[in-house]
Design a protein that fits this description.
Elements (H helix, E strand, L loop, with lengths): L8 H10 L20 H18 L3 H12 L2 E7 L11 E9 L2 E9 L7 H17 L7 H6 L8
Antiparallel strand pairs: 1-3, 2-3
Helix pairs in contact: 2-3, 2-4, 3-4
């Protein structure tokens, strides 16, 4: 289906080409639809992060950053050295530097924030937090119970 509804890539492209041209230049974006994490999954993740923070006496923001570095998707980007990237990236770490075109560049691993993760990516983050909790003897839900959290909000 087209017009706000989901269709195959071929159907969407055909529909776009069939649209009347009124002389205005238009730019269309086609994205894959992915399931988002649920609020219940998010609440459970932060509950585990809070428990880890208390047990380790580390701020939850630091625990969350560690979880992202170990379990979140990331991209590697290079930025001209001397530029402060803290205003551009929230979760990142410097991983090296190099020269190109006579300029020095600093290489960063930039992590995807949990609020931008789809359900599968966020599930990996939950699994990592669960494993850390288990290692410290903190009571957590089983993988099966965690998997059922998505159904609490009607995502089946």
């Amino acid at each position: 289906m087209i017009g706000g509804m989901i269709g195959t890539a071929e159907e969407i492209i055909h529909w776009l080409f069939s649209q009347p041209h009124d002389g205005k230049e238009r730019l269309y974006e086609i994205k894959e639809r992915r399931r988002k994490r649920t609020l219940t999954q998010n609440a459970y993740y932060w509950s585990m992060v809070n428990q880890l923070g208390k047990a380790l006496r580390i701020p939850t923001s630091e625990i969350h950053s560690c979880m992202l570095k170990e379990h979140a998707p990331f991209e590697v980007v290079s930025v001209r050295s001397g530029i402060d990237v803290s205003g551009y990236f929230r979760y990142y770490e410097e991983i090296g530097s190099g020269f190109a075109g006579g300029h020095e560049f600093t290489h960063y691993r930039v992590y995807k924030g949990s609020s931008h993760m789809d359900s599968a990516e966020f599930s990996r983050l939950i699994d990592g937090a669960r494993e850390e909790c288990e290692a410290l003897g903190i009571s957590v839900l089983t993988r099966e119970e965690i998997a059922r959290l998505k159904y609490v909000e009607g995502e089946g």
